[in-house]
From TrEMBL:
Organism listed in the record: Lentibacillus halodurans
Gene Ontology molecular-function annotations: oxidoreductase activity
Alphabetized UniProt keyword annotations: Flavoprotein, FMN, Oxidoreductase
The protein's name in its UniProt record: FMN reductase
Annotated NADPH-dependent FMN reductase-like domain residues: 1-145
Any one Pfam family match given in the protein's UniProt record, by short name: FMN_red
Keyword Flavoprotein attached: yes
Keyword Flavoprotein attached: yes
Length: 195
């Protein structure tokens, strides 16, 4: 299983990327055999979507599209600006093919400066991911500035919610897409889920 973290932040070592890293760590604890990777959009020189077929993009743009298509599950995170996800993340969703997320499991994370933007997950990200026909894991996580000290996540409640999210993404993806071997859990063969 390939679990991809996608950070829509354009700032160096952002809180969004820190939180996504944490979820990926928890997912690896749940199932050490999974492959994890994070795409921080600030590290890629992406072309702006111009309406062409996604297969015609090149360089970093082609690489990011390919990584998203090849992922089995994703953790998607964004800082919230003006009540919505970043323009950089919007560009990625404009670039990928319409079926790039179809049937995949997606966990959602947002970060912001205050409590005021927590509904961006509900009103912005969930409808977007629903358009792509992906499975959204319940328990999305919103973290704001008071949950951090410097660049370290310190809030135990948020940390616990991130743990649940990482575990649930791994379990859900395994149940719909393959064998599950988790911490202290028996393997669930895929065929058994359909009997």
């Amino acid at each position: 299983m390939k679990l991809l973290g996608l950070s829509g932040s354009m700032t160096p070592r952002s809180k969004t990327t820190i939180v996504i890293d944490k979820v990926l760590e928890f997912a690896k604890v749940e199932n050490p055999s999974i492959e994890t990777e994070i795409i921080s959009l600030r590290d890629y020189d992406l072309q702006f979507c111009d309406g062409r077929d996604p297969t015609y993009y090149e360089n970093d743009t082609k690489q990011v599209i390919k990584k998203i298509e090849e992922a089995d599950a994703l953790i998607i995170g964004t800082p919230v600006y003006r009540g919505s996800y970043t323009g950089a993340l919007k560009n990625v969703f404009d670039l990928i093919p319409n079926d790039a997320l179809k049937g995949k499991v997606v966990g959602l994370i947002a970060t912001g400066g205050t409590y005021h933007h927590f509904l961006a997950i509900e009103h912005q990200l969930k409808p977007l991911i629903g358009f792509f026909r992906a499975h959204i894991v319940p328990g999305s996580v919103y973290a704001h500035n008071r949950h951090f000290s410097e660049k370290t996540l310190v809030d135990p409640e948020v940390m616990e919610r991130l743990r649940y999210l990482g575990e649930d993404v791994v379990k859900f993806q395994a149940q719909i897409g393959g064998d599950y071997v988790g911490a202290g859990s028996p393997s669930i063969p895929r065929r058994a889920l359909h009997e």
